[in-house]
Write a structure and sequence with these properties.
With 207 residues, the chain is α/β, with parallel strands linked by helices. It is built from 9 helices and 5 strands. It has 2 domains: 127 residues, Rossmann fold; 58 residues, Orthogonal Bundle (Arc Repressor Mutant, subunit A).
């Protein structure tokens, strides 16, 4: 079951905050609104699923500046920028910094809701990938140094007898280590082993 998403609406225009909040709540989303970037930063939100709907032009800290601050804080919620005064340069800058989308007010409700839905799906996928990577790392640290060494050869496509020759150990020993590696990492095929190793940034041994 997916964690419930929260949408953070940040806009210094009260009417926009109310309209966007009402629209999102009508679709069943949890919504939190903020009249400034500073108040959002001060809220110390702990939610890791959802997205930010952010006005690009606000008093004091604007949307682009908040985006920079969130990057520094490693808060990776997707950002959907909204603006009534956007231009190409601003949208390009926002997108280059990782914004999910950039919509101009007044925007079509259906397009907006679809954008938010896709941004949340992206957030779910990224969190799922992060958790999988953490689980793989936890399993990887159970490998011995020799098993890690042999793993690098396996994912590079070396056969047991080739690994045996490379490391100067018996082929049967390689087979035993290979079995331990597969069991510890919870895989049944080399293809799955390669995928997990890639997730953990394990570099294959060169020929």
């Amino acid at each position: 079951m997916k964690e419930k998403a929260t949408i953070f609406v940040i806009d210094d225009d009260l009417s926009i905050r109310k309209a966007v909040s009402y629209l999102l709540k009508s679709e069943g989303y949890e919504v939190e609104t903020f009249e400034s970037a500073e108040k959002f930063l001060a809220s110390k939100t702990s939610s890791c699923i959802g997205c930010i709907v952010l006005d690009i032009r606000m008093k004091d800290m604007n949307g682009l500046e908040l985006q920079e601050e969130l990057i520094k804080k490693h808060l990776n919620l997707p950002i959907v920028f909204i603006t009534g005064h956007g231009d190409i340069a601003m949208s390009v800058k926002a997108m280059k910094k990782g914004a999910y989308d950039f919509l101009t007010k007044p925007f079509n409700d259906e397009i907006f809701l679809n954008t938010v839905k896709n941004a949340i799906e992206k957030c779910h996928n990224e969190l799922s990938s992060k958790k999988e990577k953490e689980e793989i790392f936890e399993k990887m640290i159970t490998l011995t140094e020799r098993e890690k060494e042999i793993l690098e050869y396996i994912i590079a496509g070396f056969l047991n007898k080739q690994i045996s020759a490379k490391l100067g150990i018996a082929e049967q020993t390689v087979k035993i280590h290979r079995g331990h590696i597969m069991r510890k990492l919870g895989v049944e095929s080399v293809a799955d082993l390669v995928r997990k190793a890639e997730k953990a940034d394990i570099i294959p041994q060169k020929h």
